[in-house]
Amino acid sequence: MSIRKAAAIFIALTALFLGFFLEKPEQIAVVDLERVLNESSFASSLQDKLSFEGKKLQNSSGDAEEKYKKFMDLKNDIENKISRNIEEKVNTIAEKENYNVVLYKRFIHSGGIDITDQLIMELDKNLRGKVEVES
């Protein structure tokens, strides 16, 4: 076999196998945020707390503007707590499962690995004691 032919075969085989070793396939995950907010006990408990505190404020005496401000502050605290926890759990799942990208399902027409159930389980895992919000 000539050196030229051997070099061509070597280059062809190297190019073929190098693709398998260097290229990691893109792993794309999707999350159905609406389902997370509706089905997660963690999110539901915080939403229930907001509803309860809102009714309590509504029935209390005092300045309507001040009550509205207190309610909006609590609402922002709760929304931020839910968002932070979702982001933290999504990052944990993505790192553990080697996902390169995690997108919201409503923006995806097809494709991606749905991690919604896994996210709900992670959010609800250590629910006791984690639902407190600064009032």
Question: What do these coordinates show?
Answer:
The chain is mainly alpha-helical and 135 residues long. The chain has a single domain (24-124), classed as Skp domain (Protein Binding, DinI Protein, Chain A, 2-Layer Sandwich), CATH 3.30.910. It contains five helices and three strands, in the order H-E-H-H-H-E-E-H. Strands 2-1-3 form a three-stranded parallel beta sheet. Helix 3 (41-59) packs antiparallel against helix 4 (64-97). The protein is rod-shaped and about 95 Å long. The mean pLDDT is 82.
Characteristic terms for this protein:
mainly alpha; 135 residues; 3 strands; rod-shaped; 3-stranded parallel beta sheet; Protein Binding, DinI Protein, Chain A
Helices and strands, with pairings:
Layout: H1 3-22, E1 28-31, H2 33-39, H3 41-59, H4 64-97, E2 101-104, E3 113-114, H5 116-124
Parallel strand pairs: 1-2, 1-3
Number of helices: 5
CATH topology: Protein Binding, DinI Protein, Chain A
The level-1 CATH class: Alpha Beta
CATH architecture tag: 2-Layer Sandwich
Given the C-alpha coordinates, what overall shape results? Answer: rod-shaped
Low-confidence stretches: none
Return the string of H and E elements.
HEHHHEEH
Range of strand content: 5-15%
Strand order of the largest sheet: 2-1-3
Give the CA-CA distance, first to last residue: 81 Å
**Whole-angstrom Rg:** 25 Å
Helical coverage, percent range: 55-70%
Instruction: Tally the structural domains.
Output: 1
- Largest sheet descriptor: 3 strands, parallel
Coarse structural class: mainly alpha
Compute the average pLDDT.
82
Oligomerization state: single chain
In total, the number of strands is 3
